[in-house]
Amino acid sequence: MLTQTAATLEALLLLHIGTLRTLSTEELLFKPSAAKWSKLQIIGHLADSAQNNIRRFIVAQYEENPFIVYNQDKWVEAVGYQGLPPADVIDLWFLLNKQIVQILRRINSDAYHRVCTTGEPHTLEWLAADYVKHLKYHLHQVLDLEPFPYP
Fold this sequence. Notes:
Elements: H1 2-22, H2 25-29, H3 39-59, H4 72-79, H5 86-106, E1 115-117, E2 121-123, H6 124-142
Antiparallel strand pairs: 1-2
């Protein structure tokens, strides 16, 4: 049920926003290698994911099987998260996810099984659950929590 997924997402936001805001700039900007993202870039990636999923959750309610994909590496590079104020990136992530909570709560249950293609066709219900799993996975990376099994 999307209302339960929305509640889970909201709980995750409230649980972790305080800790994210206490991470030092040095910790957020550290890149383990040139090919790896920093913690700030991971948070930025989560903001990009939120933006793309907002579009999916809305468009799939009124279009038949929209095709909505994005290149995560190109988005992180194009936005330039590594050069932005960390507080702004964290706030962006938080506010976009608050919007997702609202959208998920407003989706009529008749639309739960509407489909959006993201490489493969998936229902809105599946996409929402997968979105939360993806968010948990990356939050565990950023906050150095026990590894979260994803997928």
